From TrEMBL:
Keywords: Cell membrane, Membrane, Transmembrane, Transmembrane helix. This is Probable membrane transporter protein. It comes from Bilophila wadsworthia (strain 3_1_6). The keyword tRNA-binding does not apply. It holds the Pfam family TauE. Its main location: membrane. InterPro entries: TM_pro_TauE-like. It is found in: Cell membrane; Membrane. It comes from the Bacteria. The chain crosses the membrane at residues 7-35, 47-69, 81-101, 107-125, 137-157, 177-198, 210-232, 244-262.
Length: 265
């Protein structure tokens, strides 16, 4: 158990920095690492992926608070965009967690890998939006939030890998897109966490110390460390060349994606 807690604390450190630096909840790294860690702990295969997704959502709920507050202090969050997208986010994420608990585990793994490579393509493409494009109103933001919420819940992320490109596509400044995405991560994680608790409440084969589909020891280890490292990532985002960092992050995702694909097949 001690070795496991050390691993979870390291994951928390990475997740916190990523949350602050790139506006992602860290789930894009946490989920595959939890899959490997839970497999090493011999979790039952039929609940392993769901436990990774649910635990990731639980951790993002805390990292998003720390990260968004740090960005807000630097005036890096567009709060009207957060307000408009939240209704769709809440509905979409909860529905996605319900859907995830009723599909085969291998499908979830393959879906996550496909999503990883979609994210990699987006990061490396460097496409620029039309100058006239801007953020839609409440209706358009709610629809976008619903889509982001469903996908985020299925892959256990805070939505930054979708919301940052969406905000950039609508000509929001890069640094403000990162900060706004960090704030959007909280309603995603809140609804997703609740959904994975409800849908896993009476599930069979859950390991000890589980709360629905959330594994409490790993949640504790990740959260304790990430709450301290998220503000560090937010400070780095104000000074470092974020586009270049995102390309480096994309290379890391390629390695993770290939490994998860081989494991799923």
């Amino acid at each position: 158990m001690l070795i496991s807690l050390v691993v979870y604390c390291l994951l928390g450190a990475i997740a916190g920095v990523l949350a602050g630096l790139l506006g992602v909840g860290g789930g894009i790294v946490i989920v595959p690492m939890l899959v490997f860690a839970f497999g090493w702990q011999n979790f039952p295969p039929d609940v392993l992926m769901l436990m990774a997704l649910g635990t990731s959502m639980g951790s993002i709920m805390f990292t998003s608070i720390s990260s968004s507050l740090a960005h807000s202090r630097n005036k890096g969050v567009q709060w009207d965009a957060v307000r408009n997208i939240t209704p769709g986010i809440l509905i979409g994420t909860f529905c996605g967690s319900f859907l995830a608990s009723h599909v085969p585990a291998r499908f979830l793994q393959l879906f996550f890998v496909a999503f990883l490579f979609f994210v990699i393509t987006q990061m490396l493409s460097g496409k620029k939006p039309k100058p006239s494009r801007h953020l839609p109103g409440l209706g358009g933001m709610s629809v976008a939030g619903g889509i982001i919420g469903v996908v985020s819940s299925l892959v256990g992320i805070g939505g930054g890998t979708l919301s940052v490109p969406f905000l950039l596509w609508n000509n929001l400044d890069m640094r403000k897109a990162i900060g706004t995405s960090a704030a959007i991560g909280f309603p995603i994680a809140l609804a997703g966490c609740f959904g994975y608790i409800v849908n896993g409440w009476n599930a069979a084969n859950l390991p000890p110390y589980s709360f629905g589909y959330i594994y409490l020891p790993s949640l504790f280890g990740i959260v304790v460390v990430s709450m301290f490292t998220a503000p560090l990532g937010a400070r780095l985002a104000q000074t470092l060349p974020v586009p270049k960092l995102k390309k480096c992050f994309a290379l890391l995702l390629i390695v993770i994606g290939i490994r998860m694909l081989l494991k799923a097949l």
